[in-house]
Amino acid sequence: MSVLVGKQAPSFTAKAVQGENIIEHFSLDQYLGEKYVVLFFYPKDFTFVCPTELHRFQEEIAEFESRNVQVVGCSTDTEFSHWAWLQTPKNKGGIQGVSYPIVADTNKTISNDYDVLAGEYAEDEDGNLVVDGEMVAYRGLFLIDKDGVVQHQVVNNMPLGRSVKECLRVIDALQHFEEHGEVCPMDWQKGDDAMTATHEGVSGYLSK
Questions:
Q1: Domain that includes residue 69, residue range
Q2: β partners of residue 17
Q3: Half-sphere exposure for 154 (CA within 13 Å, toward CB)
Q4: Counting C-beta atoms within 10 Å of the first and last residue's C-beta, which end of the chain has fewer, N or C?
Q5: Domain contains 22
Q6: Contact 122, 9 (CB under 8 A)
Q7: CA distances from residue 174 to 6, 55, 167 in whole angstroms, order as listed
Q8: Which residues contact 128 (CB under 8 A, 6 or more apart)?
Q9: Is the pTM here over 0.70, yes or no?
Q10: Is residue 167 among the annotated active site residues?
Q11: Domain identity same for 153 and 175
């Protein structure tokens, strides 16, 4: 598994769906210099754990917007699958009401570049192309700053849903560091004491 933290987020252009609209050429480049991005991958449309995550991000969308963060979902499904899922009511297993873009990684190149693709191609003894595992994305999440640099990543296996609260906490920590130059210790929450780093190490907790 690649560690992308500290590196430029892989660039891509792909189809995406937002509401009832299919976007032909969607790219994260549009947010450079303007917004932070939370890019999260999920395995499949029309499943069980996935909609709980997509709805949860939507429920907290105002919190992300207040932090100048653009939420973007992505899976290896087609844009037509995304569109159909977005038009399906929540009580029927759909994600109707989700307002942020959902990228169609149909060719699986985005998941591969972010190293969250579960399966991989191989050849059998006869030289035939085979797949080891299922070619869908793990539950990867990447926090990308306004310069396009990955500042945080987490990857869960298929059965393990993520925490939107933890995602917001990490965003707060990053923005606190950028604004004040103070580092944030374990379980730091917005409004807590932070710490200042020196050449000799960490000098200690600072007052609020």
A1: 14-162
A2: 22, 102
A3: 12
A4: C
A5: yes
A6: no
A7: 13, 24, 11
A8: none
A9: yes
A10: no
A11: no
* Structure tokens given for 18: 């937002």
- Whether residue 87 contacts residue 52, with contact meaning beta carbons closer than 8 Å, is answered with no
Whichever domain contains 136, its CATH number is 3.40.30.10
Q: Do residues 142 and 165 lie in contact, with contact meaning Cβ atoms separated by under 8 Å?
A: no
Full pLDDT tens readout for the chain, 208 residues? 689 999 999 999 999 999 999 999 999 999 999 999 999 999 999 998 889 999 999 999 999 999 999 999 999 999 999 999 999 999 999 999 999 999 999 999 999 999 999 988 788 888 887 878 789 999 999 999 999 999 999 999 999 999 999 999 999 999 999 988 878 788 888 877 777 865 444 434 333 3
Give CA separation, 127 vs 121, 122, 133, in Å. Answer: 12, 9, 18
- Choosing from 50, 74, 167, 184, which is the catalytic residue? 50
Domains: count for the chain: 2
List Cα–Cα distances, 108 to 96, 151, 197, 205, in angstroms. Answer: 25, 23, 41, 45
